Each structure stands twice: as C-alpha cells, then as structure tokens.
Amino acid sequence: MSSVTDIVKNRFLGFLIWQSIHSTIIFILFRTTLSQNGIFSLPSFLTCFSFLTFHLSLLLFSASLYFISSPHFDLHSPPYDLVLALLRCLLTGLSPPQGVLRRARVFLGLFGFFLGAALAGTTALVSLCKSESCGGGVAVVGLRGFGFGLVYGIYYLFKRRWVLEFPIIQRPLFFRFKMGLLSAVGQAIKLSAAAYIFSGVLILFLQDQFGSHIKMGNLIFEQIIFYVGSFSLCLCWELSHHLHQVIHTKRYIFAPPKGSAAAETNPSELLLAALEESTPKSLPHYLAYLDLCMVCDNNVDTWRRAAFFEETGETYKKVIAVCLRPLEHLASNLVEGLESSIDKTHQQSTQVQLPTVLERDSRFSELFNDSQLCAWCSWAVASLTARSHKEDRFGIAQLSGSNAAVISTLLSCLLAVETFMGKKTSLQSPNALMGPAGIKWATVTTARRDASTSVVGKKRGVQLHSQAYAIADVLRTSIYCIVSTFHEEMLTGAKTGLLEKDWVIGGKPLYGSRDLLLHKLHLFLDFQAC
Questions:
Q1: How far is the C-alpha of 121 from the C-alpha of 194, rounded, in Å?
Q2: How far apart (Å, rounded) are the C-alpha atoms in residues 263 and 126?
Q3: Residue 440: beta bridge partners?
Q4: Phi-psi region of 434 (alpha: psi -120 to 50; beta: other; left: phi over 0)
C-alpha cells in the first residue's frame, strides 16, 4: 500500500511547486508597482530576504492547510471537554475513549492552523510591506499582519473550508483552476477589507505603544501600501486554497497501465486493495471510491468494468460488498439514533420538555458526514447492477444474490432516511402488496410516535435536514436506475410471485420488514415513489 499512501504526498509536492509560481508573480507585481523606489529593477539583499521570508510564510500556511485538510468533516471537542477528559484519565488511570482522542486531534489540528495563519500573516506582511515606510516600523506591520491572519483563520474554520469538496464533473486541472480565479479575487477583496478594518482597530487601541508622528500624506500612502499588501497576501492564500482543492480532489486511477501484464491478469487488484486496506475516511479511501464510481458509471474504462464480471464472481461480490458497506453503516446508525430519540422523547414528553433543535442536530450530525461517500456508493452499485443487465455474461449478479442485496440495502437506507425526515411508512394489511394504496404516508396517532415525529420531522431550513434530502434523492435516483433497466423482468416477477424472491433478501432487512420493502419496490415499479 506504499503507492496508495504516497498519493497525498506527491500531490502536496505538486501543489507546492504550482503555488510557488503564482505567489512569485504576485510578489513581483506588488514590489514593482508599490515599492519605495518605484521600479523593481535590480534586487537588493533586503528584497531577496523579503522574497525568501514571504515564501517561508506561504510554506507555513500550506503545511497548516495540509495537516487539517480532509474529505470528511469531523466534530471537535470544546477545550473544556478536553480538559475534563484529561483530568478524568489522570485521576482514574484509564485510557481515554477512542472518540475523545480523535476529537482531540481534530481540535489540536484546527487550533494549529489558526496559530499558523496568524504567524504566516505576520511574516508575509512584514515581507511585503516595507517596514521603514510605516509608522512604528516592523512592530506595526507585524501586528496588523497578525490581525489579518486571525481574521482569515477564523473565517476559514467557521466556513469549514478545510473540508475537501469533490466536483460533480471531473475536468482538467488547468480548466478547473481557471474557473475559480474570479471567485478567488472577489473573496480576496472582501477578506482583505475585513482584515484591514480589524487590524486598523487593533492598532488604534494600541496607538500609545506604537504611536509616532507621521504627516498626512505619508499616512495615506502607508495605508494604501498596507491594504494592497493585505489584498496581495489574501489573493495568494485564496489561490493556494483553490489550487489545493483542485489538485487533491482530482481523480486518481487505481489500475495498471492498459496492455500490461497486470492489466491482462487482474486489473482490479489495485482498486480493491485501496478500498479495503486504506484508512477509512482518508483521502486515498475517498479517491478509491471516486474511481470506482466513475468506472461503474462511465464508458471511459470499459475494460476495467468488464473485469468485475469475471467468471468466478469473486471480484463482483467484493465490489458490491465494499459499495454497500457505507450504506449499511448509515442505515444501522440511523436506526439506532431513531430508536434512542423515540425513547428519550417519550420520556421527556411526560414533562413537556422536548429536546431543542441543537440537541437533535448534535445527535444526528455525525450520521451524514459521509454523505459524499454514500452518494458515490449508491450510484456506483446502482450503475453496476444496471450494467450487469447487458454486460454480465455469466449471470453472476443474479446467481450470487447481489441484486437482492443491492435493492434491499438501498430501500432500507431510503426508508430510514425518510423516517428521519419525518415521513412515516406503514402497511395497511399484510395482503395488500400491490399499488400505491398499499403504502401510506400519514401522521401516526399514538403519542409515542408523535413524539418521534417531533424529534426528527421539523428540521426544514436546517443544514442537517438538507443533507438528508440530498442523500434521499441520490438513493431514490439509484433505485429508479435499476428499476428502469429491469422493469420488464420485475413486472413479470410480480405477476408470477417471484419478485420478492429475486429482489428482496430472505433475512431481516436493515430497516423495516420484507413486506415493507416489497411495498416500496412496487411504488418504484409504478414510478410513484417520491
């Protein structure tokens, strides 16, 4: 797995190389237009030293960004929780839980980025703005740079910009970078203005410490230099952020070169190894699922998809298993969360103390952090199942029971997500298995279920509720993809009584019952599931 672990390192090295190019251009343009001598002709020792320290500050910012960037959003513990956990471990002698350690690492990483941005802002602005032309010298410029770094760090962490966002359409690197230039410039103008005002207020409160008598003309000139320097630095950081996103979210092909011996014998070995052995929720883990989704859905690497349907069927079963794993994890966690919410809300209903929106969101917030991964898995397994209708020469998908496992998992996950959103699915009678009349969306009359609906059903406008709607749409689309491909076969199976045997697992599903899944599947066959 050394090749998989080197993916992030190699991409970060490429990011540093490309970052040095645009930052050098911005540094030269700034020193040329607003340098004290007017024209940047022959570099002096001070200019070369400023150039070196400027790039060192960018290296500090890039390193801080590298250590906290992740495709998965993790909640961090507040400082007082970390202190209490540390004291509890010291007093009891027990090791802290794994979740506490993970959240502590996230908090320390974010705090390190915050300090790194402040220090990088201090060093970079001192390098850009000539200290001898500012009242108060290096101290004033450094303090204002420190304030700039604080503002940028707070905004960056508050907006969760350290989370890698994968594009819907994979484009060439240069084209993707060019598309974000205008937004980076606009963002740099707004952030530099906010940082300029904040640092100016900071200097105003400390003017007794750094006060000096400056003429009005020189003062105006110094403020122009500082604002342009702040804008230049903010533009460098925004371009670095955009470049970091573009490079690290680019698709990586986990396959040997086409025509090689490995491609002829086992072309899926690298992909399966990355899916099964890479660290969960890491960037290589996400890149492997992205590559799998594109292989299953697109017609670019048809030779790799054809290798999934090899005669033994082991590769196909492994691919289906790794795709269903995140969906099964989401469904099982939702079931546990819903059951605990119903119990707690029923107990609190006697005291008329329903949980607040914040408590409900914190209870379910971690469940949808893997929504991107679940969307890829849902669409990959649906596309692969639909492709098996024409490309599966040996009938592996049907004979191995993978089709039933796929449909049952997708339906169970969809029912769990819809219950989370407030929709209640109920059966009218055990024998009413045909048509939309057999399924009912209604408000349940018992007090216990009313309590559960109030816990999860009134979240409109909340980010968590929008994530649930998004994953529900993906699951619904994935099921329709399979149903539309096998529509004739499913209708024939429904008439002969083989639909349940061929497309629903024999054991207990992750959520609901087999009859409930069959009701839901009939709605999709009638194209009335919404």
A1: 14
A2: 54
A3: 426
A4: beta
Q: Are 397 and 385 in contact (CB under 8 A)?
A: yes
Which structure tokens are listed for 417? 């997500």
Alpha carbon 458 to its chain's center: 25
Rg of the Cα atoms in the chain: 29
367-424 per-position pLDDT tens digit: 778 889 999 999 999 999 999 989 888 888 888 888 999 999 999 999 999 888 887 7
Phi/psi of residue 150, nearest 5 degrees: -65, -45
Question: How far apart are alpha carbons 125 and 103 in whole angstroms?
Answer: 33
Residue in the block written with tokens 């690497």: 301
- Which residues lie across from 427 on neighbouring strands? 439
| Helix or strand (DSSP H, E) at 426 | strand 425-427
Global model pTM greater than 0.90: no
Which residues, at least 6 apart from 486, have a Cβ–Cβ distance to it below 8 Å?
386, 389
Q: CA nearest 388: which of 501, 296, 489, 294?
A: 296
Query: What are 528's two structure tokens?
Result: 């009335």
| Helix (H), strand (E), coil (C) string for 35-102 | CCCCCCCCCCHHHHHHHHHHHHHHHHHHHHHHHHCECCCCCCCCHHHHHHHHHHHHHHCCCCCHHHHH
Q: What are phi and psi of 494, to 5 degrees?
A: -65, -35
Amino acid symbol at 332: S
